Amino acid sequence: MAAIYLIRHAQASFGARDYDKLSELGEQQATRLRQTLAEVQPHLVMSGSMRRHQQTASLAGFTAEVDPGYDEFDHQEVIVAHKPAYKRHAVMVADLAKGARPKQAFQEMFTAATQRWMDGGDGYTETFQAFCDRSEAAVRRTAERLGKGETALVFTSGGPIAAVVSRLLSGGDGLWAKLNPVTINTAITKVVSGRGGLTVVSYNEHVHLGADLLTYR
User: Fold this and answer.
1) SS3 187
2) How far is it, in rounded angstroms, from Cα 88 to Cα 108?
3) Any coiled-coil ranges, and where (predicted)?
4) What is the C-alpha separation between 91 and 215, in angstroms, rounded?
5) Which residues, at least 6 apart from 164, have a Cβ–Cβ distance to it below 8 Å?
6) CA 58/CA 155 separation, integer angstroms
7) What is the pTM of this model?
8) Can you give the pLDDT at residue 16?
9) CA torsion, ordered 118, 123, 129, 134, to nearest 10 deg
10) pLDDT tens, 126-181?
11) What number of other Cβ atoms are within 10 A of residue 205's Cβ?
């Protein structure tokens, strides 16, 4: 069987105006990942088009071919559809800072925002179902390019990984909300491709990180 390793990007710049770049800790995570993948000789290396995907691939020692199907959903659009005032980053930061636990307040707001998106609310360029469709389609495109016994590395985000795993395990998108929040930075999910189609054989493996580099955002 062929194997596809779906790798979540290293930690991005959470809370910054420009989220789409690795943090200093993220760079350390990607370097640690490089040690883990040192002996892997993939036949294909893919990534989404986001900077954090490509930075992770590069620091891990690979040059990736870009497939936008592996891009994360537009979290800013999802937030703004839920709270239009948050179109201004400064307004969101100031609002969340009013409480004693701004990070917890953000997570609660973001959970509500993604639930609205999942429930089919309006105001989105890409619906939740369309996002899950393109995530699955990207993995299937990759699988079609692999021969027997060949391997692909894919540098992507937690959302697409959760979408693919949900569909392969349950046949639908119902597990996404449970899987997405627990996907760890640089964690590795293995999907095999054989006569029976695609099968998830491991999810969210992160033993290479150790407690010192473990992050979810």
Assistant:
1) coil
2) 19
3) none
4) 26
5) 6, 135, 136, 139, 189, 191, 200
6) 10
7) 0.93
8) 58
9) -130
10) 999 999 999 999 999 999 999 999 999 999 999 999 999 999 999 999 999 999 99
11) 16
> From CA 13, how far away is CA 149, in angstroms rounded?
37
Enter the tokens of residue 1.
Answer: 């069987």
Locate tokens 């909300």: which residue? 177
Q: How would DSSP label each residue in 6-35?
A: EEEPPPB-TTSS--SSB-HHHHHHHHHHHH
Strand pairing report for 44-47 and 151-156 = parallel
CA distance 107 to 96: 10
Residue 180 tokens, joined:
């997405």
Question: What count of residues does the chain have?
Answer: 217
- Residue 164: closest CA among 191, 186, 126: 191
Distance CA 128, CA 120 (A): 7
